[in-house]
Design a protein that fits this description.
The chain is α+β, with helices and mostly antiparallel strands and 212 residues long. Helices cover 19% and strands 23% of the residues. The radius of gyration is 16 Å and the shape is globular.
């Protein structure tokens, strides 16, 4: 469940029963020891967020920046993925696979993805198998990335029980999503995501200019 939604909000959003989109998309996360797979919808990180070195660590402010800048500041790269896992919410609502999710990666997490990107000429449209180890230090998005079997066609992205095409017609869609389904920066600037910045280590040396 999202840290900033209660169970009723989560169930309402994920069931797709509403005629509007009221809440930002969920982050892509795995439980300890869990495996999953996703397809990268983004060509590169849509949003690079940084916390200035002088920022208050207890109540950090995230600032969007240009890729390749702010090397001495804590940062996270945000991109859009299609999550191929199915799951059930705390309210018992079954959520279909292929949900659009916000992948938030620290410099330490993104290196594995960038290696795949270098080898295969980018990540857009690539299906990635991922596993999160049982270590307490394992990133929430997983710490082992392997290029999976590539489908003949990218699965239809879903938002709740709506296809992307259906969701475009709902009020609130343009607040969080671009027309192609990629997630806007405003969705990353939420309490749930902001908390993660305190766990990041300095991002010096990470090449966030290459496709991600």
């Amino acid at each position: 469940m999202n840290d900033f939604l209660d169970e009723d909000q989560e169930a309402s959003m994920e069931s797709g029963g509403s005629s509007s989109i009221k809440y930002p998309p969920f982050k892509y996360t795995l439980k300890k020891g869990e495996s999953g797979a996703f397809t990268m919808l983004s060509e590169k990180a849509e949003t690079v967020l940084v916390m200035p070195v002088s920022s208050n660590r207890q109540y950090p402010d995230w600032v969007p920046c240009e890729p390749g800048s702010h090397e001495d500041e804590k940062k996270i790269l945000c991109a859009t993925v299609i999550d191929h896992n199915e799951y059930t919410t705390a309210k018992g609502v079954k959520v279909p696979a292929n949900q659009l999710r916000l992948l938030c990666a620290s410099p330490y997490s993104v290196k594995g993805l960038q290696e795949i990107s270098k080898e295969f000429g980018g990540l857009k449209g690539q299906t990635i198998k991922v596993k999160r180890s049982t270590s307490d230090k394992a990133p929430a998005i997983g710490d082992t990335f392997v290029r999976g079997k590539q489908p003949d066609k990218v699965p239809t992205p879903m938002i709740g029980k709506h296809t992307l095409e259906e969701a475009r017609k709902l009020s609130g869609f343009s607040q969080f999503y671009n027309d192609d389904g990629t997630i806007k920066a405003v969705a990353a600037l939420t309490p749930s995501v902001k908390e993660d910045v305190t766990k990041l280590k300095p991002g010096r040396g990470i090449d966030d200019g290459i496709p991600f």
